[in-house]
Design brief:
Distance between the termini: 25 Å
Strand order of the largest sheet: 3-2-1-4-5-6-7-8-9
Bound molecules: pyridoxal-5'-phosphate
CATH architecture: 3-Layer(aba) Sandwich
Number of helices: 8
Radius of gyration: 17 Å
Shape: globular
Order of helices and strands: EHEEHEHEHEHHEEEHH
CATH class: Alpha Beta
Structural class: alpha/beta
Helix content: 25-40%
Largest sheet: 9 strands, mixed
CATH topology: UDP-N-acetylmuramoyl-L-alanine:D-glutamate ligase
CATH superfamily: Ribokinase
Length: 261
């Protein structure tokens, strides 16, 4: 039987740790059929991103149209989008085809600090993709870039969720992994009315490459299977905890989380 079909609009990580490689293996682990619209090819290993090549925006849009018109897309996610032109082309393509719920993971930089989204593209991300999003899933570095709020405690995490929700997505998940002072790891879910804290353990480990991509991919897969956003977020949280536990070392730098445990 044909499984639910999901699309990731994202960059390639040559090291296989994050990006569309992480998305595809997570989709497989979740039992959905994964498809890709490649936005950029990074030159990357466990130590960092040394360069990237941006795929022409019209080629990104064509990939989206090709799979949506033939295979169908029950849910989609965005990862590394690189430029404002690419974001505009994606928004245009999404106007032309039917896709299910859109998960926007506002990838701005790698965990090593390598920039994956040009500064001028932040506005395009907010104005063109946030209003189309079922859910946006920023980490605290991305929250600072998007809202100017430096989340140093739970109160500011709530304020950031409100500020992000005002930008148009139906749901916001403000991930608390980078709130290093917090002994646990609380991701805050908000739909404009109700806050839900998703609590999980904090691991003192180095190998967490691709964790954001993996979480957003689980949420996308669950939405494609007809789960509600709170159900999908809870599944994602449970899944990422086990994926971090199953992470493995790779190369001289940071290893990836693993969806197989
Ligand atoms: N490289 C690509 C292509 C990505 O899409 C991402 C994140 O989405 C990263 C690198 C960064 O992953 P991490 O933050 O785990 O280093």
């Amino acid at each position: 039987m044909t499984p639910p079909r999901v699309l990731t609009i994202a960059g390639s990580d040559s090291g296989g740790g994050a990006g569309l490689q992480a998305d595809l293996r997570t989709f497989f682990a979740c039992g959905v059929h994964g498809m890709t619209a490649v936005t950029a090819v990074t030159v990357q290993n466990s130590v960092g991103v040394s360069d990237y090549h941006v795929i022409p925006p019209e080629v990104v849009a064509a990939q989206i149209r090709a799979v949506a018109t033939d295979i169908g897309v029950q849910a989609a996610k965005t990862g590394m989008l690189a430029t404002a032109e690419t974001i505009a082309a994606i928004a245009d393509a999404l106007d032309q085809v039917h896709i299910g719920p859109l998960v926007v993971d506002p990838v701005a930089a790698s965990m090593h600090g390598d920039q994956l989204l040009r500064d001028e593209a932040l506005d395009a991300l907010k104005s063109l993709l946030f209003p189309r999003a079922e859910i946006v899933t920023p980490n605290l570095d991305e929250v600072r870039l998007l809202t100017g709020i430096d989340v140093t405690d739970r109160v500011r995490q709530y304020a950031a969720a409100e500020a992000l929700h005002a930008m148009g997505p139906k749901w916001v998940l403000v991930k608390g992994g980078h709130l290093w002072t917090d002994p646990s790891c609380v991701d805050l879910l908000f739909d404009g009315a109700e806050f839900t804290e998703l609590d999980g353990p904090r691991f003192d480990v180095k190998d967490t490459h691709g964790s954001g991509d993996t979480l957003a991919s689980v949420i996308t897969s669950a939405l494609a299977k007809g789960r509600t956003v709170p159900e999908a977020a809870r599944l994602g949280k449970a899944f990422i905890v086990e994926s971090v536990r199953a992470a493995y070392p790779l190369g001289a730098g940071v290893g990836p989380v693993s969806p197989l445990w």
